[in-house]
């Protein structure tokens, strides 16, 4: 397929009938904003060998590209509306690969909403580079920010923490882990917490997603809110796979607390918030409190400070990830 | 500089005080749409060795990235408002390079308007890949599309055609050209025709920018409008450098007509349009007419059809450019 065929056969169907996409046949897309809504804009890029393993299934890579961006929208309380895709493809990418990649994106458009409205396909002599721009909408003034947490607010997280980091530790450093298939699935298919994000609008004082690692991302909220936080390692929610892994290899606890790629939400709730109502949407755990000061303190089960070598995730190849 | 320093020192100043950028310190940016305006979205990517020469000055690469996207906004009649940048950087990119690249973007923000509101910086083992998402605004319903040209409409182009293609032919195929500095400047610093695009709102029936090549891009308007067009090669406006080059090497005429990277506008005007009013904004030339049928016919000075080997530009490396 040449680029026009690729657009017509693989990408134009991803417009899902959105009229503003103009069938991907114009220089640009048109977005008529809905009155009473703000737009939320995010753009994350992923690179072969850095953010995904080159042997990951192409549909999973498409899904991951969607979900790292959807997770940002979720963290801000926004609903997905439109996407723009830039794909820089090496010669080794053939039609079958690209077809499966597009199918991965399409399945997530159906699952999470929104439409592809534009983008660009170019060639590179290096590894594949994909960037996705995600545009969501949120009732005017309703975006959840990193700034805004108050002293005494509860530190809450969704779902479970650490599975993706344990998978990466296994792949890169042969760490011995349990239930590898479960961990791989969490690494490949992050769950953007869109319903929870919507439920947190007007309720959470601040929030972000856990992409760099729990301690680092909580640190971002602290920095933007001008606060510190204290969390209990024992309260951090774990999947059965992570629990089993840590039971055998307690030394992997820092990997769980500081590893990235979870794409859960971490957020600040006032102490009087109705947790049960949120639990109906998505599992939520209280792991600590915001406090005056700065930085994140992590306490072990005895209440002593845990010393962590690093607070956040750096991707395996060279320069770190400036993902926001 | 690590990624956080890069964002703080180089990219955060490019937010130019736009409050919705949240200082590049959040997961996403906030855009409150102006009532009565539609948003116009475009995203083009450029790759080292494909869309720019690796020895191009970094400030020029930043400017080119801005301008290929601004040109799409111009073609649609939109004014720039916000940008999101994804940069995949090879290890060879050092702080000095990145500082100059950011300065090139900053100079164009000052010149053309808008603000950087988000993005992502990642590493790659391959050549640099940059993608820019440009968001413009246009009075509701006012976007100029590729569809909409009518039979009898004038085919018009802005500025002059072919300089960038002659420069590329010189660099890649040692084509003998005149006034190389002029050609290089046109290649490196496209002029997005934003003022002309704004003047064309409500006047042009259709339009797009000349990125793939004059004949190919006019062909896009024809295809989307369900028409054909006939143009006279002798009427295509040329710079002094291109005129002098063609006087010496007439065989380069097809390069001028089909080469890309001009970033002028090609558009459909009703025959009764006031060209003089447009001329006050930007030089405009009438080069032909839209007609029933399909495809673009090019006539030589004697009125005979010119046979062109190709109608559009393919970038030098491998897979073509799916740029829209």
Automatic annotation (TrEMBL), chains A, B:
The entry marks the following residues as binding Mg(2+) 3, namely 27, 72, 209
Q: In which pathway does it act?
A: Cofactor biosynthesis; thiamine diphosphate biosynthesis; thiamine diphosphate from thiamine phosphate: step 1/1
Record-listed E.C. numbers: 2.7.4.16
Quick one: which residues bind Mg(2+) 5? Answer: 212
The positions annotated for binding ATP are 119-120, 146, 211
Q: Which reaction does it catalyse?
A: thiamine phosphate + ATP = thiamine diphosphate + ADP
What does this protein's UniProt record list under function? Catalyzes the ATP-dependent phosphorylation of thiamine-monophosphate (TMP) to form thiamine-pyrophosphate (TPP), the active form of vitamin B1.
Query: What PANTHER family does its record include?
Result: THIAMINE-MONOPHOSPHATE KINASE
Name assigned to this protein: Thiamine-monophosphate kinase
**Origin organism of this chain?**
Zavarzinia aquatilis
**Gene encoding this polypeptide?**
thiL
């Amino acid at each position: 397929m040449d680029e026009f065929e690729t657009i017509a056969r693989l990408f134009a169907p991803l417009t899902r009938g959105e009229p503003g996409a103009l069938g991907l046949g114009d220089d640009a897309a048109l977005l008529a904003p809905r009155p009473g809504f703000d737009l939320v804009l995010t753009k994350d890029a992923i690179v072969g060998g850095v953010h995904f393993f080159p042997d990951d299934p192409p549909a999973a890579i498409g899904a991951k590209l969607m979900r790292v961006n959807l997770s940002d929208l979720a963290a801000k309380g926004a609903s997905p509306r439109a996407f723009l895709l830039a794909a820089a493809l090496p010669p080794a990418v053939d039609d079958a690969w690209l077809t499966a990649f597009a199918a991965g994106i399409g399945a997530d458009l159906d699952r999470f909403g929104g439409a592809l409205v534009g983008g660009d396909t170019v060639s590179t002599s290096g590894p594949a580079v994909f960037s996705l721009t995600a545009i969501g909408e949120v009732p005017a003034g309703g975006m959840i920010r990193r700034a805004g947490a108050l002293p005494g607010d509860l530190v809450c997280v969704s779902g479970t923490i650490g599975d993706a980091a344990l998978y990466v530790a296994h792949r890169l450093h042969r760490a011995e882990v349990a239930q590898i298939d479960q961990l791989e699935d969490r690494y490949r298919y992050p769950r953007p917490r869109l319903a929870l994000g919507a439920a947190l609008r007007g309720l959470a004082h601040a929030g972000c997603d856990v992409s760099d690692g729990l301690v680092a991302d909580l640190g971002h909220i602290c920095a933007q809110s001008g606060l510190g936080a204290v969390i209990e390692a024992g309260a951090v929610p774990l999947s059965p796979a992570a629990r089993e892994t840590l039971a055998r290899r307690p030394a992997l606890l820092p990997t769980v607390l500081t590893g990235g790629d979870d794409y859960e939400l971490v957020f600040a709730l006032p102490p009087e918030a109705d947790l049960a109502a949120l639990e109906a949407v998505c599992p939520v755990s209280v792991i600590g409190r915001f406090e005056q000061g700065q930085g994140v303190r992590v306490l072990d089960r005895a209440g002593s400070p845990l010393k962590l070598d690093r607070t956040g995730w750096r991707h395996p190849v060279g320069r770190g990830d400036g993902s926001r």
